[in-house]
Amino acid sequence: MFLGEYSHNLDSKGRLTIPAKYREQLEQGMVVTRNPTANCLLLMPLDEWARVSAKVSALPLTDPRSALLRRALFSAAEDLSQDKQGRILISQRLREYARIETEIVVAGVDTHIELWNPGQWQAQVLAPLESDDLDGAIFEALGV
Fold first, then answer.
1. 26-83 pLDDT, tens digit each
2. CA dihedral over 87, 38, 110, 133, signed as positive or negative
3. Residue 108 falls inside a structural domain
4. Is the pTM above the cut of 0.85?
5. In the prediction, which pLDDT does 55 show?
6. Does the residue 109 lie in any domain?
7. Would you say residue 96 lies in a domain?
8. At what angle are helices 64-74 and 46-57 packed, to 10 degrees?
9. How far apart are CA 76 and CA 92, in angstroms?
10. Strand pairing of 112-116 and 103-109?
11. Residue 77 CB-half CA count within 13 A
């Protein structure tokens, strides 16, 4: 389970130091790809990637929405493993997609991790939490 929010900086080569709390869960490897619903990256341990990719692969080939999702996830996906210092290299094209330059927000989202540009994190995640649009009714509707 991935929990917590961390602010990190990429090094000059585009490497991210994985928070120590997450490293053991990612020892077997991971996949990073685009999040097609937000301007961030999805980082998943291999077992979670296998679960998600099987579901996406099972979608109808002839449905344009599933084809778009399949292309968005798989064409950008990269297998990664940590070096001895717990770092991973995030490719330039994925950093450009997520508008990540030097600063990065690493957010645990239960089964996976999201990697965000801090400004995008503020605008798409934190600002809506501060609005009046989100209230207790959403939790009631979800049965939480």
1. 999 999 999 998 999 999 999 999 999 999 999 998 999 999 999 989 999 999 999 9
2. positive
3. yes
4. yes
5. 94
6. yes
7. yes
8. 150
9. 11
10. antiparallel
11. 18
